Amino acid sequence: QVQLQESGPGLVKPSETLSLTCTVSDGSIRSYYWSWIRQPPGKGLEWIGYIYYSGSTNYNPSLKSRVTVSVDTSKNQFSLKLSSVTAADTAVYYCARTLYNSGAYQFDYWGQGALVTVSS
Amino acid sequence: DIQMTQSPSSLSASVGGRVTITCRASQSISKYLTWYQQRPGKAPKPLIYAASSLQSGVPSRFSGSGSGTDFTLTISSLQPEDFATYYCQQSYSTPITFGQGTRLEIK
């Protein structure tokens, strides 16, 4: 079955850019949407945005000015960049496959999550 | 944005018992609702999609119902592994939004 793995720095300084990559294995990145979702410690889930394998994107307006999601189909990877981070961006970041079926999206496969701490 | 409100925020129940968690949307979302289970330190796992359809591999003691603005997740005959946090999620419109979560604890 499909497996996802997040990778990237676990510590980012304030005002810098958070960068994470999600590698998809045991399945193709093609023909699916792929999302980033985050969860601050002890809090709930926030959808950051998704990308279709073709490159089209949809971002949460609350983060849109700072977010870029990209895809590399040759490597079966997609990536997240979040700029100008503050302590409020400290969270576990998940990547997830996003099924689109009959007008609805659901996240059926998830990575294990990557804790990113914003601190100087 | 569509706001999702879950109730209660937490509850306790006994093994073998039955619980119901409610999720209310701030506007109609038809049946575009998914329920997830999250155990501590783990990623969420989908349980129910389209409000009432059981995800493959999920035990039949989990069930969902509702449409429009009001939805419920029911777990019958609680097992020890069911004690976790549960989230609802709407995808009627973007941004996709989640409820704040309901923590289910052992009594």
Average per-residue pLDDT of chain B, rounded, comes to 96
Which class of secondary structure composition applies to the elements of chain B? mainly beta
Approximately how much beta-strand content do the residues of chain B carry?
Answer: over 45%
Radius of gyration of chain B: 13 Å
Topology pattern of chain B, helix = H, strand = E = EEEEEEEEEEE
Low-confidence stretches of chain B: none
Please give the largest β-sheet of chain A: 7 strands, mixed
| Low-confidence residue ranges of chain A | none
Largest sheet of chain B: 7 strands, mixed
Query: Looking at the chains present, what oligomeric state does this protein adopt?
Result: heterodimer
Shape of chain A: globular
Radius of gyration of chain A (Å): 14 Å
Number of helices of chain A: 0
Largest interface, with Cβ-Cβ < 8 Å? A-B, 23 and 25 residues
Total helices of chain B: the number is 0
N-to-C terminal Cα separation of chain A, in Å?
39 Å
Instruction: Please give the number of β-strands of chain B.
Output: 11
Return the string of H and E elements of chain A: EEEEEEEEEEE
Output mean pLDDT of chain A: 96
